[in-house]
């Protein structure tokens, strides 16, 4: 399982991770107005939240790169056909 850490000092409360996550892993904490992890078990390690975060407040631990390998293979196949 991926461990997700949100740095509350770095989080600017924009909500981009909440809106962007395809697995609804995050929600906004109404009191702190910071993002918080609510469904870590549903994280598929796509890292879309990490990519979109303007303050890079997300840290993902125990990621296995092979989970994203299917994307790399598709891109590689397309590039090989073009070249």
Automatic annotation (TrEMBL):
The keyword Lipid biosynthesis does not apply. Gene3D superfamilies: 3.30.70.20. Keywords: 4Fe-4S, Iron, Iron-sulfur, Metal-binding. Residues 2-31, 34-63 form the 4Fe-4S ferredoxin-type domain. InterPro entries: 4Fe4S_Fe-S-bd, 4Fe4S_Fe_S_CS, Fe-S_Ferredoxin. The keyword Cell wall biogenesis/degradation does not apply. It holds the Pfam family Fer4_10. Coiled coil: none annotated. SUPFAM superfamilies: 4Fe-4S ferredoxins. PANTHER family: ADENYLYLSULFATE REDUCTASE, BETA SUBUNIT, FERREDOXIN III. This is 4Fe-4S binding protein.
